[in-house]
Amino acid sequence: MAFFSAILTVEVASSQADSGINTFIKGVFGGEKPTVKNYDDFKPVLSSGTVNVNEGVITISGKNSIYAPCDGTVAAISKDENGTYTVEVKHSDNFKTLLTGLDMIYVEDGQTVFGNIPLGYVNGGNAKLCFFDGDGKMLNDFSVDGNAVIWAV
Q1: In 3D, which of 52, 66, 126 has the Cα closest to residue 97?
Q2: pTM of this prediction?
Q3: DSSP assignments along 106-135, one per residue
Q4: What counts of helices (H) and strands (E) characterise the chain?
Q5: C-alpha–C-alpha distance, residues 100 and 130, integer Å
Q6: Closest by alpha carbon to 51, among 66, 37, 36?
Q7: Count of CB atoms within 10 A of residue 35's CB?
Q8: pLDDT tens digits along 85-134
Q9: Spatial distance between the Cα atoms of 42 and 52, rounded to a whole number of angstroms
Q10: Tens digit of each residue's pLDDT (9 = 90 or more) over 40-67
């Protein structure tokens, strides 16, 4: 009976090809490799407010909630001598965002963030946002249409 149960378990697991455990096992023992996401695979959306772009630096002015432009993980947080915060969000191994000038933050290091939930607030100043590739090179090959970032690639 135990033999029959083991066969049944294997058949049920193989019918769930996209389950979390099968994805993990494929990653450990070979099989399909996970997709590597580059910056141009993301569709960033900016917080509302007055938006200006200058040589790859996006400035968002006014009293605004600030959102991560895409889902990711908080990789670092720092506070400068003026009391404003800088938050680094890692979206993939090949893409991250740096947000500076935040008066308040609602996140902590290592936390998962989403593009539709505020991670901080600017109380009338200027928040600045920059995108970086996996090598740390600032990305400036984009334009902004409304609050959507359009990659030039």
Answers
A1: 66
A2: 0.72
A3: ---TT-EE-TTSEEEEEEEEEEEEEEEETT
A4: 2, 11
A5: 9
A6: 66
A7: 7
A8: 999 999 988 889 999 999 999 999 999 999 889 999 999 889 999 999 98
A9: 20
A10: 566 666 766 788 888 889 888 888 899 8
